[in-house]
Amino acid sequence: MAYFQQLQIYNDGTTLKDHVSKETYKKLQKITTKLNLPANTFDTIKPWAITTSLSLLSFLKSPDELSQASTLGVDMYLITSAILSGKPVHELEGMKFQGDLLSNVAPEQQEKELNQILDALLDESSDDINLPEEFRKAQLQWAKGDLNAFSKSFLISDSVSDNPESQRLLGDRDKNMANKLADLLEAEGKSTHFVVIGAAHFVTKDMVLDQLKKKGYTVEFIK
Prior knowledge:
With 223 residues, this protein is mostly helical. Helices cover 59% and strands 0% of the residues. The protein is globular. This is TraB family protein.
């Protein structure tokens, strides 16, 4: 976690103003005002990390809910349950892997993706869409196992899935996770594994399950 946090911040004496245009920084100030955050909230943070934070915040009713979500999420519940019951926990991806994946992006691309989320949040025509409410609907669809409705809620089209950011977050990661799962399944001896993977990896093209099917595994959806 310490490694991941270090990747998010400038530790060379510079700030965000030194790395993005005045126009980008001005947009960010409008967003901090809109979210009732201090004007310098993101000054020491790199664009990719700001984009990640703003993407998450757009689905929540307030910034305070972000810290709650990180401590009360399903993944944390399952990890804690496994530890308390003495079950071994293995990583499909570690924090270092995720940090390197998210941060290893050219500065120009980082600023471009930051502007995309800023423009979306500043778009007055999008105010009619209640993202926190839509996110709540998606959570309920997930809980009910309504895969079709849940997939539609993500609104992931082929064009969206093909953009650089989506390819980083979904494409190659699915292949890597499928390979690790195959290693577990093909290990000597009998064993059962309970695997927790982010929901977006179940609704995209060539997802983990598709990769496993290509390897010859039988995959069943159990509701």
